[in-house]
Design the sequence.
């Protein structure tokens, strides 16, 4: 227990004349937030209890205010987790402004590839849940903090779930540590039970009624339907901003473009001169922060209406004031793990009822609103799951296992997860890490495994990078890893597909032809972008996403620095070396040997692991039908596809991963036969 009582009258209660007008205005609006009257209860409860669960409507001030209450109450090292990078950055900025301090000093943030905080001065840090876990590697009791807030706990991300388990075990060891679990929906019982009946503070928000409208018939194309819905609202409904939920950056950019174009054309044609201007603003993680900031600014006072086209980040993480209409197509991009192929992919899938309710709620923050659901009432009632499945139950656990091993948790199966994953999933993850040589025969972390945990990347990618100097292509490998960690860089506008494809082929021929593979193409694009001075115009002419490339450059610099720290020399065979791409493909295979497929018949390939039939994704530049390929990901759309593919030579499989391609490990079937042929081929050489 703290022996000194923190002052309950915060310094800012007394209006200090030195503060700017902006500061005073912010202060005034902060006092209006629903969470504000709960300030003293929160502080008092934490004097007597280690854990507090705080539940409140989105926009009630949990994320921005509660951490400030704690700083004012005298806690000196406060961390507040966010599942999303964009929210961590955005909120940190806002809070620094509210407190009238400089971002990166008293208030900061840490996200993957970016740390804007000060080791000594920062008192309040917003941090992604993944990065806080990483901090725990060197400091398993998180002694750097005296108060930790797990925000957006209702999202049940993998990392938040692991942190909850970890903190639950740390609390008895550190009686002075305080934990606040904050959540938006009403699943609070689960959190209070998990933390041994922790006290609950319920912040009742002021919510205005939201009318729900369904579609009479299912829609065929939700993007088109969304566009129509926004246009109709803009034409027919009284003023008020619109929030449209889509699933990813590409969709969002293209719908924003379409909306701008439609409004411009309608306004230009004389008959529709009465149509007000529409300001279409995207909101997603990869957007540069100044662009993200635009969604918070009021539209020009000439009757312009704002439409914000956002990913799920606007569901509960980021609140935008002034929204009166919500358009909800009912989809979200989420991680799905296919236990058969052991491949994790991002798929567009239906949201849950709880999500649909949250989304609708965004329309009723400032006055009564309307939510247009682009699905039928019957599908809402019958098809949507009640709540979103926790991520831990639909993930490849390899990274979690690596993390827990690094945190020196010995007994994985009995680790206190809120929703324990089935033991088989753990077995699969252990097996995968064993194949990667991250774990030894006894299941202990190897030196390589420990270094893999240090990199904020998937285990195969970490392995590829950490041992890339063996192939003398660590320079190429960091570029590739950066390109694989950003969004897709190739743009393919609906009306210019042929031109876009031609531009891609031109870049490909510079990389040495299609045989070099998709991985080589990514490196080639990265280098060409640098050669052309990171020019936006060049990107535009070559149908490349400028923003994604800029992000890749940033990531590559971070990775190069990390490798330097881990003493992996950055080397290249040279841009003209004839074996440059060959080395890169070997290096990729060194990490991704579990993602290998062989040609079977027609256009189909078979994944070695599970004999699943797959096709090369139409975006591939590989045209020569190689017998064996390594692939980066599995995508399920109309067919099973493998995306980002390169040829590998069969003898490499046995050289680089003999333990994995040992035919005796496979049941009789196509894979075993293919591996047998491979063995014979090798013996005959
Ligand atoms: O976490 P919770 O959803 O409860 O609310 P919050 O994120 O703390 O937001 C509280 C208020 O701050 C909302 O009314 C937001 O509109 C406002 N806010 C803002 O204007 N600009 C930001 N960058 C962040 C929050
Ligand atoms: Mg929040």
Sequence:
């Amino acid at each position: 227990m703290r022996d000194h009582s923190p002052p309950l009258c915060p310094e800012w209660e007394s209006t200090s004349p030195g503060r700017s007008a902006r500061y005073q205005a912010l202060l005034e609006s902060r006092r209006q937030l629903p969470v504000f009257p709960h300030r003293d209860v929160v502080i008092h409860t934490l004097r007597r209890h280690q854990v507090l669960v705080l539940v409140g409507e989105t926009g009630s001030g949990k994320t921005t205010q509660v951490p400030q209450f704690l700083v004012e109450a005298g806690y000196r090292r406060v961390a507040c987790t966010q599942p999303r990078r964009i929210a961590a950055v955005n909120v940190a900025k806002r809070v620094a402004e509210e407190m009238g301090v400089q971002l990166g000093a008293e208030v900061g943030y840490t996200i993957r590839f970016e740390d804007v905080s000060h080791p000594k001065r920062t008192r309040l840090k917003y941090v992604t849940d993944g990065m806080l876990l990483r901090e725990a590697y060197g400091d398993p009791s998180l002694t750097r903090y005296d108060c930790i807030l797990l925000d957006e706990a209702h999202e049940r991300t993998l990392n938040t779930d692991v942190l909850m388990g970890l903190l639950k075990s740390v609390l008895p060891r550190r009686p002075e540590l305080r934990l606040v679990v904050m959540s938006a929906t009403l699943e609070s019982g689960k959190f209070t039970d998990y933390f041994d009946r922790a006290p609950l503070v319920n912040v009742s928000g002021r919510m205005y009624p939201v009318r729900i409208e369904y579609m009479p018939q299912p829609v065929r194309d939700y993007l088109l339907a969304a566009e129509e819905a926004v246009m109709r609202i803009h034409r027919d409904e009284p003023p008020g901003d619109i929030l449209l939920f889509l699933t990813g950056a590409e969709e969002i950019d293209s719908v924003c473009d379409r909306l701008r174009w439609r409004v411009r054309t309608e306004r230009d044609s004389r008959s529709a001169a009465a149509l007000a201007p529409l300001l279409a603003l995207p909101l997603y993680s990869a957007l540069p922060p100044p662009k993200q900031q635009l969604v918070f600014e009021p539209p020009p006072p000439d009757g312009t209406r704002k439409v914000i086209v956002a990913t799920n980040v606007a569901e509960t993480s980021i609140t935008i004031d002034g929204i009166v209409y919500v358009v909800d197509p009912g989809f979200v991009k989420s991680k799905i793990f296919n236990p058969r192929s052991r491949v994790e992919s991002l798929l567009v899938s239906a949201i849950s009822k709880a999500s649909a309710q949250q989304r609708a709620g965004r329309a009723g923050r400032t006055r009564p609103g309307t939510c247009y659901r682009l699905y039928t009432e019957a599908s809402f009632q019958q098809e949507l799951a009640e709540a979103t499945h926790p991520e831990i139950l639909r993930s490849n656990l390899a990274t979690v296992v690596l993390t827990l091993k690094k945190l020196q948790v010995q007994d994985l199966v009995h680790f206190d997860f809120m929703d324990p994953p089935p033991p088989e999933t753990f077995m699969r993850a252990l097996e995968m890490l064993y194949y990667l040589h991250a774990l030894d025969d006894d299941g202990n972390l190897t030196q390589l495994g420990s270094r893999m945990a240090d990199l904020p990347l998937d285990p195969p990618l970490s392995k590829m990078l950490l041992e890339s100097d063996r192939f003398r292509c660590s320079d190429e490998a960091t570029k590739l890893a950066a390109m694989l960690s950003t969004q897709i860089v190739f743009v393919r506008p609906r009306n210019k597909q042929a031109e876009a494809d031609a531009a891609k082929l031109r870049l490909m021929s510079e990389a040495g032809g299609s045989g070099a593979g998709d991985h080589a193409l990514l490196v080639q694009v990265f280098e060409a972008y640098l050669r052309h001075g990171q020019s936006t115009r060049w990107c535009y002419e070559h149908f490349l996403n400028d923003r994604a490339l800029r992000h890749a450059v940033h990531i590559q610099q971070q990775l190069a620095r990390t490798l330097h720290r881990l003493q992996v020399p950055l080397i290249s065979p040279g841009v003209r070396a004839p074996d440059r791409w060959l080395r890169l493909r070997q290096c990729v295979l060194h990490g991704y040997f579990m993602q290998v497929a062989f040609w079977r018949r027609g256009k189909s390939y078979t994944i070695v692991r599970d004999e699943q039939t797959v096709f090369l994704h139409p975006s591939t530049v590989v045209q020569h039908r190689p017998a064996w390929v390594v692939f980066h990901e599995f995508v399920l759309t109309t067919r099973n596809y493998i995306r980002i593919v390169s040829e590998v030579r069969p003898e490499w499989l046995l050289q680089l991963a003999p333990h994995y391609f040992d035919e005796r490990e496979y049941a009789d079937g196509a894979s075993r036969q293919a591996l047998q042929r491979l063995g014979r081929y090798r013996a005959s050489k």
Observations:
- The first strand starts at residue 51 and ends at 56.
